Amino acid sequence: MFCQKCGTQNPDDASFCSQCGNQFFFIDKPKSNFPYKPVGIISAIVSILFFPIVFGILSIFCGYKVYKQESEGWGIGISTFGAICMISGLIIGFIEGMKI
Ligand SMILES: [Zn+2]
């Protein structure tokens, strides 16, 4: 790796720069900034009206991501909401189809 301060090349496992003594610190991989929470909720609502399977699964997936990364309660809530909306969308779609 190269020192961020002076540009000297150092071994990859070095914790200090051999040239200037700059301390290397490893920045944790940033957590995904994707807004799973709002996307999950919006997808659930959209799934009632359009493409219930696609948006329903998307919503459940977002709920799962929220569960893993942010909050278990919200994750379960969004996944459940997504599943209910997907089923509602399927039923509505089925009834709409029956009319035609
Ligand atoms: Zn340096």
Write up this protein:
The N and C termini lie far apart (about 65 Å). It contains 3 helices and no strands. The chain is rod-shaped. The protein folds into 2 domains: about 1-30; about 35-100. The protein is about 60% helix and about 0% strand. It has about 100 residues and is an all-alpha fold. It has helices at about 35-50, 50-70, 70-100. The mean pLDDT is about 90. Zinc ion binds near residues 5, 19, 20 and 22.
Low-confidence stretches: none
* Estimated structural class: mainly alpha
Number of strands: 0
Radius of gyration: 23 Å
> What oligomerization state is this entry in?
single chain
DSSP summary: helix tally: 3
What is the H/E order? Answer: HHH
N/C terminus separation: 66 Å
Largest sheet: none
State the domain count.
2
Bound heterogens, unique: zinc ion
Q: What proportion of the residues is helical, as a percent range?
A: 55-70%
Let me know the average pLDDT.
90
Strand content: under 5%
List the helices and strands and how they pair.
Elements: H1 36-49, H2 52-69, H3 72-99
Helix pairs in contact: 1-2, 1-3, 2-3
The protein binds zinc ion (ZN).
Zinc ion (ZN) is lined by residues 3, 5-6, 8, 17, 19-20, 22.
